[in-house]
Structure formats: structure tokens, C-alpha cells
Design brief:
Strand content: under 5%
Largest sheet: none
Distance between the termini: 56 Å
Length: 79
């Protein structure tokens, strides 16, 4: 498992070098490789679920503002 960590580190360093050299495509590809390798590890196993939960929360918060509607008031929440 240690070799995967080293590969992730090299991918992050590669993304930083490409970004410094203003090679956007190279930086994006290195970053995507690092993310895919991280999610494949046991530590990053919960990342897709956490990201999904976060995006769901953002969607629930943004939908009333985008539709110009108000949320239903909860009982006992102020006056």
C-alpha cells in the first residue's frame, strides 16, 4: 500500500509542475490520476459518498433561491 501513496505523491507533484509550467491539460490529468488512485485506497473509500452528501446539501440550499420560493417554516423556529 506504500507504493500507492508514493504514486499519489508523484501525481500531485506532477500536477504542480504542470501548473507551474502553465500546462493546464497536464495538470488536470495528473490531478485526476491522483484522485482516482486516492479513491481506490481504503482511506479514500468514503470520498464519493461525502462528495455526494455535500452536493445534495448545496442543491437543497440553492433550489429555493434559484426558484425564488421560500422554504416551509418549521414549527418552533422563532416567531
Amino acid at each position: 500500500m506504500g507504493s500507492v501513496g508514493l504514486l499519489i505523491l508523484f501525481a500531485i507533484v506532477g500536477a504542480a509542475i504542470c501548473a507551474k509550467a502553465r500546462s493546464a491539460l497536464g495538470a488536470i490529468l495528473f490531478a485526476l490520476v491522483a484522485i482516482v488512485m486516492f479513491v481506490a485506497t481504503p482511506v479514500g473509500d468514503g470520498l464519493p459518498g461525502a462528495l455526494s452528501s455535500f452536493m445534495s446539501g448545496v442543491d437543497e440550499a440553492a433550489t429555493p433561491a434559484l426558484n425564488k420560493t421560500e422554504r416551509a417554516a418549521t414549527s418552533g423556529a422563532g416567531s
